[in-house]
Specification:
CATH architecture: Alpha-Beta Barrel
EC number: 3.5.2.9
Structural class: alpha/beta
Strand content: 15-25%
Organism: Pseudomonas kilonensis
Number of strands: 10
Number of helices: 8
GO molecular function, one term: 5-oxoprolinase (ATP-hydrolyzing) activity
Helix content: 25-40%
CATH superfamily: Glycoside hydrolase/deacetylase
Protein name: 5-oxoprolinase subunit A
Distance between the termini: 14 Å
Keywords: ATP-binding, Hydrolase, Nucleotide-binding
Length: 261
């Protein structure tokens, strides 16, 4: 049976300002990337999402980012290595503490936004994030952009890496994500998304924004949770996978039906 993980960025509401529908999304995904307070999220909200994820047997991971609440973590930054290592350790530690209070634990780390895109190719910042993960818990899995240099860099450093693709993002011919500022960078039609992701899962192929077919080896698919169509997209995608014999399961062995390498 073909299997794939569905993940989404959750826990990003801040006080009275909601961001997405975490409860609805948790009914559809197998992994939850939970904000750690630097780009979004507040402790009470984060704890609530952790508890909801736990009740649904959804695997949780730390969604670490730059210290950038105003920019939602989507602004490029150049922290020193000491700053970045400390910030990533701090965020993972905060989520670990909240998870422990809820009676569960975190299993992986997925960087957010600008940090995610930067470390895909920036060896120095990638090395800092890798070092931070290894320092706090080398058993944590890193969720990273399929085909990016960080995948091999992290594996050589001894981390387990799972590669992911993005359901609602357009790709360039080189396998990178199209910049959000450009037209067509974000795909909104659930049916188009489902068709693209089915082909990705079954054939490992996706069509870039300029019509070039590229190969992407991914074991997890991200559905962004911070827009109005997120839940509808996730529902259509999940239904399409089930209808076509694709099993949805976490990439973490032994958790929520996980075990895929």
């Amino acid at each position: 049976m073909v299997s794939i993980d569905l993940n989404s960025d959750l826990g990003e509401s801040f006080g009275p300002w909601p961001m997405g529908d975490d409860s609805a999304m948790l009914d559809l995904v197998s992994s939850a990337n939970i904000a750690c307070g630097f780009h979004a999220g507040d402790p009470a909200g984060i704890l609530s999402v952790i508890r909801e994820a736990m009740s649904r047997r959804v695997v949780i991971g730390a969604h670490v980012g730059y210290r950038d609440l105003v920019g939602f973590g989507r602004r490029a930054m150049e922290p020193s290595s000491a700053e970045l290592i400390g910030d990533v350790i701090y965020q993972i530690g905060a989520l670990q503490g909240l998870a422990k209070a809820a009676g569960t634990s975190i299993h992986y780390v997925k960087p957010h936004g600008a940090l995610y895109n930067t470390i895909a190719n920036d060896a120095r910042q990638a090395s800092d994030v890798i070092a931070a993960i290894k320092a706090i818990d080398p058993e944590l899995t890193l969720l990273a952009l399929a085909g990016a240099p960080i995948v091999q860099q992290a594996r050589q450093a001894g981390l387990r890496v799972v590669c992911e693709a993005f359901a609602d993002r357009a790709y360039s011919a080189d396998g990178s994500l199209v910049n959000r500022r450009l037209p067509g960078a974000v795909i909104h039609d659930p049916e188009v998304i489902a068709k693209r992701m089915l082909r990705l899962v079954k054939d490992r192929v996706i069509e870039s924004i300029d019509g070039v077919e590229i190969t992407i080896e991914a074991d997890s698919i991200c559905i962004h949770g911070d827009n109005a169509t997120s839940v509808a997209t996730a529902r259509v995608l999940k239904e399409a996978f089930i209808a076509n014999g694709v099993h949805i399961a976490s990439f973490i062995p032994g958790v929520n039906g996980g075990g895929r390498e």
